[in-house]
């Protein structure tokens, strides 16, 4: 586990001093605050702060829609209605701040989600720790033979061992040289902003990441998806669990309409109607390309 | 004051039930939560929720800069350093959610600040109230003769009276017809989404507005400025008071470096150096245009 | 038509002077440049500038995916693949700048799309023209009895006439007083930034609006939809025609996957599979609420 | 130089086929289109497309400010006025698309500017080239002794040689193993999305980066600044040259008001006024901290 005794003591201290507030409180999220949820071999996600709850989503929606929304009898129904009709602004009224420790190559994917606030540990100012992501054997996969950006089956024993040896040895040596370059013992010592360039993409970094619930759902839909790279998916899955505890109704709607749902094209929709009417539809009669048909059958087949 | 007994009862209820939290708490902001701060004749601003405090800004900065920031002895010094050097991300780690009631023409200026979340009362769904902004006599000014987008002195008695009569009569008549058009008594009743087009820009609307502290400071710098239109400036000034109570150190730095500070151009800086050296600099010898020189003298003169 | 002879002369001049460029050129868009496409009674949309074409989308995608995309045999196939898999960044590589004249109540909906650049005509600086949107008889509808934010059938003769009289008379009187208030003949003249508050929401404003293709598609999906208010939908439809001429392959994919497609929830997907298998599914056995089932049947029924 | 004969042929082809357009054309930018401007040892910046010119900035401003801006006699004066008064939206009306090849650790700083569109070469799909940034001797500096995030003087001979040896050897070995791990000769071959984690931060990546002129100026102010890391500053400086050719008036205003200008705090402004009045002001009598006074004297001293 990635926490030092100092870090654990800090978390314990933060959790030992409840204070009074008049703000919306989510009990499910209070239980999670500050605890580090371990991810990969040295990473973690932990909730530092949050704003709002399921009721806050509805309150914001009722500002917008006033009497119009009273027909929906309860908060859960309203939240499902909002999600189904792509009303994004009420979900933007909730916000969460996470502390994440993650390998640099995962951070590089993650940061592509631009509608969020980030404070990353700076390797210009500070010295990075000697911590590298080394995959577990079952996460050490061959290149997929059908998907240019995917993985196939796990590597076999000897090849796997060779890969692990290289990953460990190269990371260790790179870090040794990083330390030696910045050392000021008997030499000037290379600038940290330069020395960091020697470090590989599996070194761990950390950041504070703050995002609203609408944009978080967008992130989770893409990154908790089966096609996402495993190393970012495990972070997304950990965050899914937190969101479920934080805003259970919104998370339920998200699961039904986004994670578990699917988009059909106009062509796909026409095929579905013909299939429901009992017609036998094939790729040739569907109007779709082979790739598209394969994906379509994956959804409705 | 704009609150009905129902609204006041709702605020009293929300304020009567403190709960426990492990999150960062700002006592100054807790004292303000839900209270409606009146602005203009029927408007208000009230804090619905907030995330973070001065310490949270420093905590985020220390994630980024690690040991590098320990030289700054205390939180206030660190916050001043961050503000001075345009480090925006630590300030983005605080967030506030406001409920604002404001005239439509003010809302139209306000919404130009895009980096925020908004849920506005919908006049497609719901019926707007009969409430219009009518300026106080000392806010009823003539067009400025020097500034195309400013105001000059207050209008004199008879002209002022005529203006007020028109504003009141036109708003009242427009609302009467709005009500008559949507009425379903003895007629079909015009769609609300159409009827609203008859209403003037001084009618009040309301929204939930959520923004991070960095972008809020940007809004306040522009809208609490002496050149901002009076009717939005009074909202900005009310929010300034709230932010001062919420994050006093950050607000202090903002006042010193942004609200009270000034930007000098390369030309202006060169003039300042010559003036400090005792030289008499005039517009002719400054290299500036007349307009620019006038503004420059307004800053350093 | 909303153009004065001066404006038409300006457009003719702009169109009479082609210049050479090395940039990507879309012939379909060149044919549209500067022409004003009329919308509603006094509004228009016209293209001022654009960046990129279908090939530019593919070029950007090939930077990202390199050899991985060569399997897709042609640009149209690649664009369909990108749209189907929610790859948004290649579409962001195209940009368009429009000049739009539109009623204020439409502008207020439009501006909610935040990821765009806007320069609006300023009624603080300048004087608005006497131009108001007055609906055609077939766009003068009653409030919907089934949808809180929709319209029902057209108003009948006498009620319609009364509504039109009010809209015209109130707008005319409001503008007369606006003019009288800012007049400097024999009086000081009210500041323009104040006088504008007397003007109703059907007065026309205008702006330059610049947006990338990904965000434009998002706007069009919501605003060219049958549930959008008619007065903004006609703008969206006019823009759809322009986009079709600009990037025909991207627009085709957008039509198939977004405009003509549909999202099914996990529950909906399960029902579709049962229905394809020959089962008779009803609302009661679907696990959906009544409202959700009605919408679902609207999609697949 | 980083271009292969194939790449040069592609550029030559793109530059050999001018086409006609009715859009705004910047001759200065046409001369630059597609040419690769070399940066660092293997990097480059080249302009792929642009939208707008100095006149387009003014045209957008005149939509907003109408008659109000006619007092400013010419485009250059108007642009200086807009820059001085922080009118950002007219500058947003210009857009540029760049193709950049850059080391990963530079890309990680660059991407922090969120208001831009990016398509980066994907190391999940594709194989990275064997190209690493190795600093020139005069860019191989020691850690600054006064600034936690800066560099001091160049390293002396033997230490410099050792650093260069390590950087080259570690990069070469990491790439050898990367190649060996993904090889499918006699083994399964590790997935590319995993193998990339072995590569150091000085490997080159590339992307298409599209940004509006306002946000580009913000990027350039921070990254062409003397405090920016040298390796990103050289990119910013190369882009400055391009912008100067593209929109000379806007770039001139940017140089005067942003790059060459300075922000004074309220305290600093008070000191300047006392100094102009002939008073001897010291840190003790300034009300500033030592660090702040040192920075202040750096500006006005």
Automatic annotation (TrEMBL), chains A, B, C, D:
DUMP binds at residues 109-112, 120-124, 196, 223. It catalyses: dUMP + (6R)-5,10-methylene-5,6,7,8-tetrahydrofolate + NADPH + H(+) = dTMP + (6S)-5,6,7,8-tetrahydrofolate + NADP(+). Pfam families: Thy1. Binds 4 FAD per tetramer. Each FAD binding site is formed by three monomers. Its cofactor is FAD. The active site is at 223 (involved in ionization of n3 of dump, leading to its activation). It is an enzyme of class 2 (transferase). GO terms for molecular function: flavin adenine dinucleotide binding; NADPH binding; thymidylate synthase (FAD) activity; thymidylate synthase activity. Pathway: Pyrimidine metabolism; dTTP biosynthesis. FAD binds at residues 89, 112-114, 120, 212-214, 218. Keywords: FAD, Flavoprotein, Methyltransferase, NADP, Nucleotide biosynthesis, Transferase. Homotetramer. This is Flavin-dependent thymidylate synthase. The lineage of its organism: Bacteria, Pseudomonadati, Pseudomonadota, Alphaproteobacteria, Rhodobacterales.
């Amino acid at each position: 586990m990635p926490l030092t005794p100092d870090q654990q003591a800090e978390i314990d201290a933060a959790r030992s001093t409840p204070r009074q507030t008049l703000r919306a409180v989510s009990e499910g999220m209070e239980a999670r605050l500050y605890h580090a949820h371990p991810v990969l071999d040295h990473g973690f996600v932990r909730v530092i702060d949050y704003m709002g709850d399921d009721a806050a989503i509805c309150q914001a929606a009722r500002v917008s829609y006033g009497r119009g929304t009273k027909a929906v009898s309860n908060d859960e129904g309203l939240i499902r209605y909002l999600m189904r009709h792509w009303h994004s602004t009420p979900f933007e009224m909730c916000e969460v701040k996470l502390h994440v420790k993650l390998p640099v190559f995962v951070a590089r994917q993650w940061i592509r989600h631009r509608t969020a606030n980030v404070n990353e540990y700076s390797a210009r100012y500070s010295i990075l720790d000697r911590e590298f992501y080394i995959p577990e054997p079952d996460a050490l996969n061959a290149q997929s033979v059908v998907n240019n950006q995917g993985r196939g089956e796990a590597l076999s024993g000897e090849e796997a061992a060779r890969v692990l040896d290289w990953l460990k040895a190269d990371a260790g040596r790179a870090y040794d040289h990083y330390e030696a370059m910045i050392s000021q013992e008997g030499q000037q010592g290379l600038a940290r902003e330069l020395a960091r360039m020697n470090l590989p993409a599996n070194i761990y970094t950390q950041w504070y990441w703050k995002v609203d619930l609408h944009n978080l759902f967008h992130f989770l839909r893409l990154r908790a998806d089966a096609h996402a790279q495993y190393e970012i998916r495990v972070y997304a899955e950990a965050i899914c669990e937190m969101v479920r505890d934080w805003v259970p109704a919104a998370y339920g709607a998200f699961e039904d309409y986004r994670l578990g749902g699917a988009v059909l094209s106009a062509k796909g929709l026409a095929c579905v109607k013909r299939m429901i009417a009992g017609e036998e539809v094939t790729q040739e009669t569907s109007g779709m390309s082979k790739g598209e048909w394969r994906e379509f059958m994956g959804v409705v087949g």
